[in-house]
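Risk mitigation, structural track. In case the binding assays with glutamine fail to produce interpretable data, a predicted complex structure has been prepared as a fallback.
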Amino acid sequence: MTKFIFVTGGVVSGIGKGISAASIGRLLKDRGLTVFMQKFDPYLNVDPGVMSPYQHGEVFVTVDGAETDLDLGHYERFIDEELTRAASVTTGKIYSHVIKKERRGDYDGATVQVIPHVTDAIKEAIYRAARDSQADVVITEIGGTVGDIEGLPFLEAIRQIHSENKAEDVIFVHTVLVPTIPGSDELKTKPTQHSFKQLMSYGIKTDIIITRSDGEVTEGLRRKISLFCDVPEEAVIQSKHVDLIYEVPLVFHEQDLDSLILKHLNLEDQPQSQGHWRAMVERFKEAKKPVDIGLVGKYVQLEDAYISVTQALLDAGYDTGYQVKVHYINAEEITPETVEDYLGAMDGIIIPGGFGERGFEGMVQASKFAREKDIPYFGICLGMQVSVVDVARHLAGLREANTTEIEAETPYPVIDLMEQQVGVDNLGGTMRLGNYPCQLEEDSLARRLYHQDEIQERHRHRYEVNNDYRAPLRKAGLFLSGLNEDLDLVEMVELPSHYFYLACQFHPEFSSRPNKTHPLFRGFVEAAGQKRK
Ligand code: GLN
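Fallback model:
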């Protein structure tokens, strides 16, 4: 029998609702329960795959190849579980499904309406997640804030789930901002009261309120929220500011949030095993050795665009005793003249994934600089394609080498569209997505770091190393160290003559967890730390 926790947001967005939901997941896992998490995004896009990273931040990819909201990255990192397609639901997805059914005649001539047809489809997405995951608890976060017009069908669906199930099987958690008035330190609970009332008007009575604020939510304020929002005082939980996001579950635990949830769900007496998470947090806080990493990309104005890469770098650092400082550097500004200024002081250079022409030449300069100065380099996806272009141009003598994504007519298309991608017109959901195996060559840095000869990693791309150029690239010194033998694709490259120069076609950042940091990120950060002048 699965229990359901629904997390909604009030007052404003961007107050860490995803981290709160993920922290609840962590707490319940540490009480011995199995947990599945879902994010509902009320926008009309089918998924964020074709949305600009400036709009939406990073697109997180699941092992089964769904392109999803970045909150799924928080979920996976906190609960240490691989999520699936079922973890990401949007209005676009729900409507496409309902309209497809309508066209097939599945509704037997009925007038198709938001209630019950759309709400039924939403409920089915929740119940299906429960069935497929067999988890003790499914935690569903509703994106946006209460009161958004597009969120209404989701709120109605979770209201119905509450009334269809026993009260002890469903919990509503509401996260709110408790603001201060500019110029005074006084915290104001009125927006919380309004948000509570708005939820009530949809038939949802929240059980737990999680507050975010600048100052301390005092006993008095807690009592006030409790009184006006009809929740017990112990159900007003403060999400206070922490240095490390992984401290949030500990902060919640100190306020007995896990016991409160278990009591409500009638799951008392679950043992606690929080020690490992606390030990991890304490160890992470001890990491002090500084290391500066330059992240060269084109979406640097919005750091959320690289959130999993950043988190994987930070976590790998904490794990190996380093305090990583990530410097976000706009690739467009890097030229042969400026590269020294931008990157000269970096201990390591990373080029993450990306699309399109803007900034590409700056990235090639960054790879060349790392290579020539022997600064540890780590390329991911586009970052690997960049290094192949750099090596082709500057070491293999193929001066005009390029990727056909940027220059269709290049005489040396060292990176080219994968065969399976030729003739694909639809942009959404059509890349090479999700987990694929990769065989690691003997004597490679990759194999030394992974301690394995075959790995599985997540992909999201259309272009690949052009196999016609394997020989000249090898001759130029590039070690093709990871291959997908079934599909005959190059997945990893290295320069063995260098201290640390490694790049991969897949996205290792998606599988890095704080309690299982990724070997490639660890290797890179350690190399950068050791090279630090
Ligand atoms: N634009 C490149 C491709 O499609 C790289 C994609 C990426 O970095 N995720 O192959």
